[in-house]
């Protein structure tokens, strides 16, 4: 299963910048899961924001798998984000010693 | 006689009034109520309408249980009279079998419930009655909470655990720029920790708005939910940004002011020495040209430090009441010449006087800088519009401008040029910041900012790339009448004298130059390099000094402290202070500019001789 994610941001806002780096880290840390991520600047693409009925930035949209889910915030609460996206938190490899 | 009985279970607690003339029924009712385990009750009793009204006048009850037939009142009238006495208190009516036909009338008259004392057992009835009261209380609470949520100034959004929006209040809709239909039923999770706030940017808004978001777990309709509050912090952030900007300018200003002060001491020596050398040189001397160059370069440097001091708000200025319209009209021709033919200048002046308190020369500089700036923004030509008007700032507008509420004169300079980016706009007033390719000094707008804020006003920039820029200045409306310009002074010859002068200056080079100037003009000069030695000299002197000239900033004792000590002995001693700083700094020493002469460094020979002569000739 591929997670298709859209992150709507206002690039000049610090919280949006934090959301981008939090999302990057989150994808990296859960690598066996496959992500397809796009970051959308709402100031340049108001049409896309309207399509997804985005109220505020930063907002993360899970486009696939269905149903669509939205998360407002800077994604700092990693566990809650994973829960909302319905992704099982990845156990770090080094803790699984033979 | 009404009595009370209290049970000690903490919650929920009620105070009831039992209105019943039959003491047997009353006791039975009390017994059953007291036996119910879930409530803490205080029960008062009344057996007549009169006693009931007397109690209601002094005591609040959560509920009344009444029998309609009392010795002094019968049927629905009993209910109606009591209802009027306590319009918001739930009332339960107890009835006998013969009164069941009254039910509709009783409920219509505002009773909460109508219980037949014979149909159900008294115990069941008491229970039913209490639960009906609890329902009433919950309902009232629910209404209050809902009202509070609906009317809250903060936006409130309630979602279920899955993020589906269940409730949204008006403040949230206004902030988000949506209707309830667009939001209720939508799915929004919130990825922040509890008790943490997060700033979010509202997408729908026409201008950029920032809200502070906070999420707490909540219960909605008996199910787990989240309650998110949204607070509009756009204005708050804007003010914080303005404050930060002002502080930055202040810090740079202090630095610039300090450098300029030292620089002025050096320039005083250069300019005055050049002047002396030039005077002693024969007309055809080969080095004469070089000395003139030194003088000119020195003057340019002096002009630059003056600009720096203006920005740092340490420049000595001479504010008076002037009509801004008059200043604009006076320099209009000069401005038109300055901006060239491809740029048009339009005046749109308030027909009424626009009196403000400002140094007219500085105001002229402000206008010149703004108009030149406008010209440089329109390389392909355009129009500069200078407008004056008068306006009143209310409290909200005053906060926005960082001024106090009141009447202000507005001066705006608008161009149809390239406009500024946000970044340029934010840094426009910073000294040495310039976007001019041929290298402006970066001091023009810093000076504008310095002069206007020093005069109690404010300046703001509105700009849009490609459309143009408007500088808007606000200056407080002047209370006093217009003043007129002082006439300029006399020629060099009239400035000579033979009076005895004590000169105090800790910079050796400056001291020597000033001393030379004064001696050349015929004055008898004695010099001191510290305040203490000056004080000793002044005290020991056999004959009094006609004048003391002292630097203000000195290592051992400030010129003002020296002046005070001298005046303590001789209040009429004439004193001239010299400084690279301004009245603002001097005012901190408790002096006002009207009580002494202040000579601003760097000064020319003419400046100091004129100040000396003026002071000596002044009648005290």
Describe the structure using short key phrases:
heterodimer, A: alpha+beta, 5 strands, B: alpha/beta, five-stranded parallel β-sheet, elongated
What can be said about this structure in brief?
The complex is a heterodimer of chains A (98) and B (620). Chain A is α+β, with helices and mostly antiparallel strands and 98 residues long.
Distance between the termini of chain A: 28 Å
What is the topology, as strand order, of the major beta sheet of chain B?
A: 2-1-3-4-5
Low-pLDDT runs of chain A: 93-98
Question: Care to count the β-strands of chain A?
Answer: 5
Largest sheet of chain B: 5 strands, parallel
CA(first)-CA(last) distance of chain B: 94 Å
SS-derived structural category of chain A: alpha+beta
Query: What overall geometry of chain A do the principal axes of the alpha carbons give?
Result: globular
Mean pLDDT of chain B: 81
- Most extensive protein-chain contact, per-chain counts: A-B, 31 and 25 residues
Architecture overview:
The complex is a heterodimer of chains A (98) and B (620). By secondary structure, chain A is α+β, with helices and mostly antiparallel strands. Chain A is built from three helices and five strands; from the N terminus they run E-H-E-H-E-E-E-H. Chain A is globular. Chain A starts with a strand and ends in a 13-residue tail after the last helix. The N terminus of chain B is likely disordered. Strand 3 of chain A pairs antiparallel with strand 9 of chain B, so a sheet runs across the interface.
Give the topology.
The complex is a heterodimer of chains A (98) and B (620).
Chain A: E1 2-9, H1 14-29, E2 34-41, H2 46-51, E3 56-57, E4 59-64, E5 69-72, H3 78-85
Parallel strand pairs in A: 1-2
Antiparallel strand pairs in A: 1-4, 4-5
Chain B: E1 13-19, H1 23-35, E2 40-46, H2 49-58, E3 63-67, H3 75-85, E4 91-95, H4 103-108, E5 113-116, H5 122-151, E6 155-160, E7 165-168, H6 170-176, H7 180-183, E8 189-190, E9 197-202, E10 209-220, E11 223-232, H8 234-280, H9 288-311, E12 320-323, H10 324-339, E13 343-348, E14 355-358, H11 360-376, E15 382-393, H12 395-401, E16 406-414, H13 422-427, H14 444-454, E17 458-464, E18 468-476, E19 500-504, H15 508-520, E20 524-528, H16 531-540, E21 547-551, H17 559-569, E22 575-579, H18 583-587, E23 597-600, H19 605-617
Parallel strand pairs in B: 1-2, 1-3, 3-4, 4-5, 13-15, 19-20, 19-21, 21-22, 22-23
Antiparallel strand pairs in B: 6-7, 6-11, 9-10, 10-11, 12-14, 15-16, 16-18, 17-18
